[in-house]
Amino acid sequence: MTGRKINCLNIDELLKQLPCLNDIHQETVQLDLPFEQIAESFADDKGTVLLLSGSSLDCSRYNILAAKPWLEVTSKQEKVFISCLGKESCVHQDPFSVVQALLNHFKLEDYSHDMPIHAGLFGYFSYDLKDRIEKLPRTCTDTGLPDLCLYAPSIILVQDKETGHARLCIPVPVNQTSVEKTDDIVLDTRRFFFEKIRHRVEREPFSIDNAGFCSSLTKPEYIRSVKRIIDYLRAGDIYQANFSQRFETGFYGDGYLLFLDLFERNPASFFSYIHAGDHKIVSTSPERFIKQNGRFVETRPIKGTIARGRTTKQDLENGSKLTRSIKDDAELTMIVDLMRNDLSRVTKHGSVAVTEHKRLEPYENVFHLVSVVEGELEEGKTSVDFLKATFPGGSITGCPKIRSMEIIDELESVKRHIYTGSIGYISFHDTMDLSIAIRTATIFNHKIFFSVGGGIVYDSDPEKEYQETLDKGKTLMEALSGTQKNVEDTKFKAKAWVDGKIIDQDKARISAVSPGFQYGAGLFETICVKQGTIFRLSDHVHRLNRAWENLFSETPPDITWKNVIDSLILANGFQDKVLAVKLLVSKDECECGKKLFLAAFARQYVHRLEMLDKKGLDLVTYPYPRQSPLADYKTLNYLYYDQAGRFAKARHADEAIVVNPDQTISETNTASILAIKDKTVIIPKSDHVLGGVTLKSVLGILSGKGYDICKTRIPKEHFDSYSNIILTNALMGAVKVLTIDGKKIEQEPGICSMINEQLFKLESNTHRRKKNRKESSLNLV
After folding, report:
1. Of 199-203, 257-261, 560-564, 637-641, which gets the smallest average pLDDT?
2. Which Pfam families does this entry report, sorted A to Z (predicted)?
3. 7-295+377-484 domain in CATH 3.60.120.10?
4. Confidence at 590, pLDDT banded by 50, 70, 90
5. Which one from 287, 298, 374, 655 is the annotated catalytic residue?
6. Which of the residues 68, 303, 495, 587 is marked catalytic?
7. What angle do CA 415, 420, 425 make, to 5 degrees?
8. What is the DSSP string of 711-745?
């Protein structure tokens, strides 16, 4: 929801804007295809949630598909975003409170529980929501993904595996103006559903990077952390803690095919697939976290794992060995006591009971020990109360829970996000079923990552604990590893020039204690290259060197940037491409004595007007004046301009006008400004502004055609009265301005075309003359 203006409301204002849920259309349907094949028709649609039960256990009775959401709820910390029927809002409030308010608002009375859900919210609660329940330290790096992601679907298909019956539910949200349209909504939704499932989808095979997986922790780091947990155990801080590591690799292709592949390999009870827009969740969990059916609730913690035997005899022996394990019995009993205590916080006194303990459950590849704890909710307690009292699950945190979570945060380097959070549904009629998100992968930004861990106790062997994490991730790793491809075959691997050599761009590194990183003590230049022709290089290098001398009182680095750029173009195979090349020089302080960080990067460039499909750019005025003498230079301290650009984007504009402290015009966040009136070119005057390389060339072209150049202060309130306002920078050349703060700017046709033709033509001719004289050797780099 970034980049758009969203109304921020309090919860009462939000609820007034939401529709009501007055009706649910229900019908029995005949399914002629496997459930996962029907779900495949919706797998590419944002908001699709599939809950697939793969085993014959008593917790694996239903398959559920949720699709075509009319409500979306996501949160980050205590900011909750709601999108409902095309309207977007945000609420600054605890996300659990918002979910409770939505459940109250859409509550359905007197719905039979013959099916687990008729209407409600589907999706995930990430482990990181623990910070909204308890005051805990937060020292891990973030994925940037939502803490919570829930959808209210307009299509819910429920299949009862026991009876073979399937029911289609269509909740109909209505407001006062659309009550009479209920039948039309149902008809349209039914038609959409049945047409959708008739069409098969061609899917792209998935693959991963040839380099395989990398972990968030090295083996020595993991073992040191386990030893540290054992120290906490000996000191009496905890009795057990669940510790994990995250594995990551590049991922290309179809996430739903991965889901189907994993389901075929190991069909566990709580398989789930979530299409959450920019990321997808694939879960193969065997563990129920909590379930609610009216006032009755349960949890089913798992502790203890052993491989299935290769023969019937070995299978029986392995199962018997697990049930006799003193260590696994102690761990499970400890977690059962913890969960009994959690349930007791919201249930009737005396209603909590362990109805089964240490039950041996068989899965495709392993046995697990499972216990069942049941209770009855106290009057006045809700689904959300039950969730908060138990979240996150004790089996994947430790005992005592809060201290274990503190230690987890101290020792794990990245936030868990979905790992050990919960996936499933919470209905509008007092039912809920959530799994523990273990053996769960996230696909995001052409990457796939998943975490595996285990419970650490007093007598744990660090080496064996490390190996256990590899064993637990085996199914997912094997499913993915068989699809490895060379990166060159799947995705272009960019090269960069860094400190004198060509390397993979994603391997470029700068010290975190360097002045360049910490204070922005560095400079950069952005240069246009077309089919090997480098435009205005000498002017860019001159500006770079002059700025270095003025800011740091040092001789600039002695680099032949022309040779650097030529090598970079060759290494990337960009000889016939249009490029944006960035040169970067910054202060560095390494123990080896290195004082500078030097780099050059190249990316393919599509002209901004072509990308936007526009004939010019729309501008808005940034309300915060720039007051820094650093504006004279193109420094790495670029946050002000980045924020100005974000300000413009949030207001559906392309560039932000930067003003001086006296409220006169200076430039935009990426370009110089000029205006043309009759035969005069007017340049805004500023005490401090970057001397534009491209602007200098444009003024030379216009001066040669008889234009006078005038530099003057332009009050921002008068600027939109000027005609022929033009922006210039190295990549765009000259581009006309369409509007300023919504007001149209008059433009004479042909001015920018004339400038750009001369601008690049002049440089191109000069470049060719120099190119004929240059040495062909590139030994410098």
Report:
1. 199-203
2. Aminotran_4 (PF01063), Anth_synt_I_N (PF04715), Chorismate_bind (PF00425)
3. yes
4. low
5. 287
6. 303
7. 120
8. EE--BHHHHTT-SSEEEEETTTEEEEEEEETTEE-
